[in-house]
Amino acid sequence: MFRLDEKVVVVTGASSGLGHAFARACAAAGADLVLAARRREHLDLTAKLVEAQRRRAVVVPTDVTDPGQCQAVADAAVREFGHVDVLVNCAGTASANPATRETPEEFREVVEVNLHASYWMAQACGRVMRRGGSVVNISSVLALTTAGLPQAAYSASKAALLGLTRDLAQQWGPRKGIRVNAIAPGFFATEMTDDYAPAYVENVLRPRMLLGRKGNPDEIAATLVWLVSDAGAYVTGQCIVVDGGMSIT
Question: Which of 56, 58, 149, 182 has CA 20 to 30 A from 201's CA?
Fold first, then answer.
C-alpha cells in the first residue's frame, strides 16, 4: 500500500531541501518524477539520484510564480508520461522583516511564491490529474505557531495554504476523486535553515523541540510517501504536522 509504482509525481522546489528529499523518496517508492524549480543545474543533480533508482525523471526549469510556466510543467508531464498522479507543492521562500519596516514588495514576493504559485500549479495539474490523484501543499509549523522571528509574510502565506488545501479538497474530492492535503514541517536541516544564527537555534528553537533535535528530511519524506500512496487513500483536507512537538510548546 505504500508503493508508488506506475505513478507520476510532480515536485516543485525539487532542486534542494525538502523538495529534493521528496523527489528521492517518491522514486524509491517506484514513481517517475517531473522536477520543477528555477536552478537547472540543481534539478539535474536531483534527476541523477532519481535515475540511479531506475526511475525516470523529467527536468523542467520553472518560475512557479508564472501561471504559464506552471502549465508548461503539467504539459511536460502529460507529453512524457501521459498523465499526472501526484503534485507536491514544495517551492517556497522566506523572509524575516519587522512588520513596521517590511516593504510591500518584500511581503508580496513571499506570498507570490508560497501561496499564489501553489494555486497555479494545483490548477495546472488538477486539470490533467487522474481520478485517485493527490495534491500535497507544503505549509509550515509557522502556520500554527510562532518561532521568535518577525515572519509575518511567511506565516501568513503558509497559513493561507491550509485554507487553500481545505477548499480544493472539498471541490475536487467529490467531483474528481482527487485528495488534497498539507504537510506542516517543523525545523528541518535545509538550505533555508542554514542561515539561522546558532544562538537562535539553541536558545529559541531547540527548547521547543520535544524530541530534542531538528528533523531529518528523510523523516518528513516518509510522511509524504504515506500520504500520496494507497495507504493514505482515506485522508483528505488535512494538515499533517511533522515538527517533533514544536507546535504544542
Answer: 182
Compute the mean pLDDT over every residue in the chain, rounded to the nearest whole number.
95
Cα separation, 18 vs 78, whole angstroms: 24
Provide the greatest CA pair distance for the chain.
Answer: 51
Q: In which residue are the cell numbers 501521459 written?
A: 82
Q: What is the mean pLDDT of residues 11-26?
A: 96
Q: How buried is 244 (Cβ within 10 angstroms: 0-12 exposed, 13-18 middle, 19+ buried)?
A: buried
- Active-site residue, 234 included: no
Per annotation, catalytic residue among 119, 154, 200, 234: 154
